[in-house]
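User: I'm curious whether this sequence folds into something compact or stays loose and floppy. Could you predict its structure so I can see for myself?
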Amino acid sequence: MAQKVRISSSSLAERVIATFVASLADPHAPLHCARCIQACIVTLTQNTYGLENLAVLCASHQDVLKTCMNFLTAPRSSEEITRLKSSMSACHCDTSDPCVREMHTADVKSDEPSFATLVNMLIVTVHNAVQPALEAGNVHEVAQNAGIAAQEGRSVPWPATPKDLLPYGPESMIALGAMIDVSPHPIHLGLLGSIMDICLETTIPPFLASPVLSGHVVGIGRIPQIAWIAMTSFPERPSAYTPLDCLADIGRLTLVCQVLLALGNKSQLVQFSNQAEEQNGQGDGVDICSDMLKLLEEVAPAIKPSTPKVRADVARCTAVFANLGARLHLFLAHPFDHKEYHPHILRGSLQRAQQEGNPHAHGL
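Assistant: Here's the prediction. I'll summarize afterward.
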């Protein structure tokens, strides 16, 4: 028997699901306001049964996740996004529907419901739903998954195919970048990296074609660095942000960088680094890699206890930033400045230059 979505609400879960799906059925013209839609997603995924519900939604109510992705990746101009923000901020809902009426009084887990908060909640929902497929590494084995699921009398959990994450094709990446641009947050890099890790090479050209994504890799990557500086500069101030949270945010940036490192060629990596500086103005690809390596050296000892998973995560992040930073340092012919760049990057760049007989090796 299929599991059911459980909610702490007088409305039936099926009514909330139906309201949410109907609200965003046309991603260019939502049926309800941001507050109503936000309340639907909170009711379904962030209440007492949130974690259980997410698995049920992936298995039995995939229309919810598909609706999220269709909304987040629908192609829109900047003018359309501005109009959407305005139209969804004002309530135009038909509250004669009991479920819609209840959603307007439900706890939406934020002081001020807004378009930006809604976008963030949709991204968080999809990010969390994608993680089991990403960790299992089996989203590409569509035929095999479908066959096994049929024998067991169940459907393939969402996302069943890479297309579920890019419903409008590779160009969905550019549209997702525009949504991330609404209110950048570290978990947005987690979703971006997860999609790139699952959909592979097809995501690199649209990632680079985006007018904002390269810049956000650096800009959002600075958020844990800034949070860490604030936390360590004023240790007497209570903070909900912990060293483990900081490592998790670094890990989200790492995932994007890991895919770029694995799949990007020289010209693509150089393009990414240059665009990051142009779009954000907070440094290029070498700078963010160097700064993350320095940050990891401070964060890792502060995590207590230091479990095998923590040590493995730190090692993975360190390897990615060291390798990507070294490649970019060499490709861009940056100076061997020991004050500017982390030793791992300079060492790796020098080794690569010497192996290739690159005259840049003599810049030391």
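Summary: The mean pLDDT is 90. The first helix runs from residue 13 to 23.
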